[in-house]
Amino acid sequence: MAGLVRNFFSLRAFTEISRRRTFLQVPALAVKPASYCCSEPKTYTQILVEKRGEKNNVGFIQLNRRKSLNALCEELMLELSHALDEYEKDKNVGAIVITGIGKAFAAGADIKEMEGLDFTKVYGGDFLSNWTHITKITKPIIAAVNGFALGGGCELAMMCDIIYAGEKASFGQPEIILGTIPGAGGTQRLPRVVGKSMAMEMCLTGDRVNAQQALQAGLVSKVLPDEQLVDEAVKTAEKIASYSKVATSMCKEAINTAYETSSERMVSTLKETFTRNDRREGMSAFVAKRKPEFTDS
Ligand SMILES: CCCCCCC/C=C/C(=O)SCCNC(=O)CCNC(=O)[C@H](O)C(C)(C)COP(=O)(O)OP(=O)(O)OC[C@H]1O[C@@H](n2cnc3c(N)ncnc32)[C@H](O)[C@@H]1OP(=O)(O)O
């Protein structure tokens, strides 16, 4: 019986991985048909990309918008999706590391880009359509969180498979301060990892937790001295890359199957916040560097 269950599970996992591979081979459907095709060579302006490790088998991506603390603008997310697809296709790459430049991993979705949006634009259009692309990647991904991982930045880290934190890292879901809510896993992945009370506290207060607190809560698996963070992440990625890629993908898939559920409802709730005055006020106040005056509307 145990064997039967195992075989059924392996078949299911294999079928799912094959399905995903097929999906990724059709890039025009995968993300944004109009502006993105992963088979086209691309010059990146928002990220730095190079292969690392003794055998060049680690795909390395550094978010590279230093001045805006690697705020996740649409172009950056598009480039990230493209680079991930390139590594997914690269037969030599067995694992991927994502980190940020400067003092942030990513300070969240780009508030300046979102400020002028309204409900019609976020509901009907392809608002944030690239955000979950990372979850379609079958190769293991390590987030090396070097500084602020806030809002969408924290969610991006949680979409990776392993999180290492530098000593200066901090994690938070400050969307509530902007009059909106976490929309890419902060209300799902976060409570699953850190438990309801801590997730509620982080999401309802917008307060940040430091690297040690994140370690204690199980959000990250290691805290490393800042200068060793990336090298250690690459070393772990090299180890993973030395194993069977089919096995590591299946292992990732198996854990994620137990871990994930649909995020559709949560995304639509996030979009609903764009019908509200307080979402606009929160974002405008941030851009204008003033305190928001919420009207509960
Ligand atoms: C289908 C999936 C749906 C996905 C939905 C995803 C929804 C995600 C929503 C979000 O992520 S909302 C954003 C959440 N993040 C924040 O609210 C953090 C905002 N930033 C800060 O609070 C502070 O910048 C800081 C991180 C605490 C650092 O403070 P510090 O004083 O050290 O630096 P600053 O002078 O504030 O920032 C420097 C520079 O960077 C700009 N910036 C920072 N964060 C963002 C951002 N998220 N978006 C755009 N720009 C950002 C900041 O404005 C400064 O630039 P200048 O104004 O000086 O040009």
From TrEMBL:
Q: Which InterPro entries match?
A: ClpP/crotonase-like_dom_sf (IPR029045), Enoyl-CoA_hyd/isom_CS (IPR018376), Enoyl-CoA_hydra/iso (IPR001753), Enoyl-CoA_hydra_C (IPR014748)
The record ties this protein, via Pfam families, to: ECH_1
Assigned EC number? 4.2.1.17
Q: What class of enzyme is it?
A: lyase
Which UniProt keyword terms apply here?
Lyase
On whether Lyase is a keyword of this UniProt record, the answer is yes
Matching entries from SUPFAM superfamilies are given as:
ClpP/crotonase
| Listed PANTHER family | ENOYL-COA HYDRATASE, MITOCHONDRIAL, ENOYL-COA HYDRATASE-RELATED
Family the entry assigns: Belongs to the enoyl-CoA hydratase/isomerase family.
- What's the protein called, per UniProt? enoyl-CoA hydratase
Species whose genome carries this gene:
Priapulus caudatus (Priapulid worm)
Lineage here is:
Eukaryota, Metazoa, Ecdysozoa, Scalidophora, Priapulida
Q: Which gene encodes it?
A: LOC106805914
